[in-house]
Specification:
This protein has 187 residues and is mainly alpha-helical. It is 80% helix and 0% strand. The protein folds into two domains: 48 residues, Homeodomain-like (Arc Repressor Mutant, subunit A); 132 residues, Tetracycline Repressor, domain 2 (Orthogonal Bundle), CATH 1.10.357. It starts with a helix and ends with a helix.
């Protein structure tokens, strides 16, 4: 018999996968239970509502981001760290092309709902983590207007993901990321 945390973790992993691939609005609790291999009746033992599981998804993504940043911060220079950040987009270009940005998609859907401002705020804070981390790296490189530069930099990434998703062409992501890598190399 699976321990309580095993089923909860399976449900959370299933929610992350399903919400990313189908979108928050199109995902049902039954979809998450099915992908997780957990009976729907057990779902309610761990998560009372769909909003509650999406809150857990956001918390999981936050923890994952913080862990990744901690690993990148061990790298020898801001340039190397930023390039590691950028390479994750090249490595995931096919998935991003097929499904879009997991944060962007979730943010887009939640922003249409007026009843979940706390969830919208939590997703916005995930975007802010990226921007704060990038801003810090650019400050370490003594880049003037580091915050504005981080905004432009991240906007380029998000735009490339959106366009690649619309055109179903991962080369758009790869080309834009490689352009940003060259820009970092020149700094």
């Amino acid at each position: 018999m699976a321990r309580k945390s095993d089923k909860r973790e399976r449900l959370l992993e299933g929610a992350i996968e399903t919400i990313y691939q189908r979108g928050f609005n199109q995902t049902t609790l039954a979809d998450i239970a099915d992908v997780s291999g957990v009976q729907l009746g057990n779902f309610y033992y761990y998560f009372k509502t769909k909003d509650e599981i999406v809150e857990a998804v956001i918390a999981e993504r936050r923890g994952s981001l913080l862990s990744t940043y901690a690993e990148w911060d061990k790298l020898p220079s801001p340039k190397v760290r930023i390039k590691a950040f950028l390479n994750t987009y090249i490595d995931d270009a096919e998935n991003l092309t097929a499904n879009g940005c997991p944060l962007g998609g979730l943010s887009f859907e939640l922003n249409k709902r007026e009843d979940v401002p706390d969830l919208v705020d939590k997703v916005e804070k995930l975007f802010s983590l990226h921007l704060q981390w990038l801003t810090h790296q650019f400050k370490l490189m003594r880049k003037a207007k580091a915050e504005e530069f981080a905004d432009e930099f991240y906007s380029t990434i998000q735009g490339a993901i959106l366009l690649a998703n619309c055109k179903k062409d991962s080369r758009i992501i790869k080309n834009q990321i490689n352009r940003l890598i060259k820009l970092v190399d020149r700094m």
